[in-house]
Amino acid sequence: MKRIYLDHAATTPIHPSVKEVMRDVMEDSFGNPSSIHHFGRESRKRLDEARMTMANSINANYESIIFTSGGTEANNLAIFGTAYANRNKGNHIITTNIEHHAVLHPVEQLEKEGFDVTYLPVDEKGMVDIMDVKKALRKDTILVTIMYVNNETGMKQPVQMIGNLLRSRGIPFHTDAVQAYGVEEIDVEELKIDLLTTSSHKIYGPKGVGFLYKREGLNLTQRLYGGEQERTWRSGTENTLAIEGFKKAVEVLKEERTKRYDHYKQLSERLIQALDEKNVEYHINGDLSTEHRVPNILNLSFPGMDVEIFLTNLDLSGVAVSSGSACTAGSIDPSHVLKAMYGEDSPRLRNSIRFSFGMDNTVEEMTLVAERIEKIVNRLSSNV
Q1: Which of 92, 150, 321, 372 could form a disulfide bond with 317, CB atoms 3.0-4.6 angstroms apart?
Q2: Residue 78 — pLDDT band, cuts 50, 70, 90?
Q3: What are the residue boundaries of the Aminotransferase class V domain, all occurrences included (predicted)?
């Protein structure tokens, strides 16, 4: 049985070029980049070059890149750091109902500490309205955190319009760009983004590393205390091995981004076409148009199916996908993203699957996936 991995939004395999670079680093560059001797200086050079690569990838300054252990830490530093640094100016934060839990849980904690949080709604396509952002702004608003691309639906938010609006008001704008970084061209100057989060393992790099972009002049309250690493914004010896792997993943991404984008689009379109050919009933959660959705994430609702049983059967048939929602104690919780889009009583909360494509997937695999879905749907429907 051919196993097909379609859960790249959860994590990607490490690119062969990244593996090769990391093997070389393990052999030749083990020094602490804070040490002043030869071995430390070698590691420092690698770290500096990686920081420049990351900065160039989003049109940022070298000093604006803060290496972290991944997207969650970067989000936490951006949100808590900004909130605490600006508490003397106000205590109002704006976000949306569809954020990743690495954003929702920090702002929920800030609510417990006395901050006032506004959760903006989204429409049935999963998009926030710029007018809702504008209406929610107050004199005491000190942070707006709205994701670039939703991890469950792939829907893109109007970050440029939000950035322009907030820059004119002098309000810091943070965006979780973990799902956007490997697909979208990002220019933080053009988009007027003040804080931006990325993660290596979403772009064929190693797990356990990411970065936070912080616009020059923006103040944060330090969250980790210890050494002077990352200009004191993030104490702790830098993970030079993972950072070097991340750097290579970014370099490969720069070379292949357009090719990958076109390939993802072809895969997404073929899966939809193959399901139509098999007369499988489905509904698209979000928007099929790549004007509003990244092509590597496709969220589909299958009427009459139970997501937990469906996922199990897909796995047994060799197809690895996700519901896009949290798995807790052996059960799958209803997606908070789909709940925000369709309401808590919608059957889509219990019958939706996220397909997320990768560079190694093939068009032929999409035909196979549709065939296996058809068999599962027919079998499960006949048992009802």
Answers
A1: 372
A2: very high
A3: 4-366
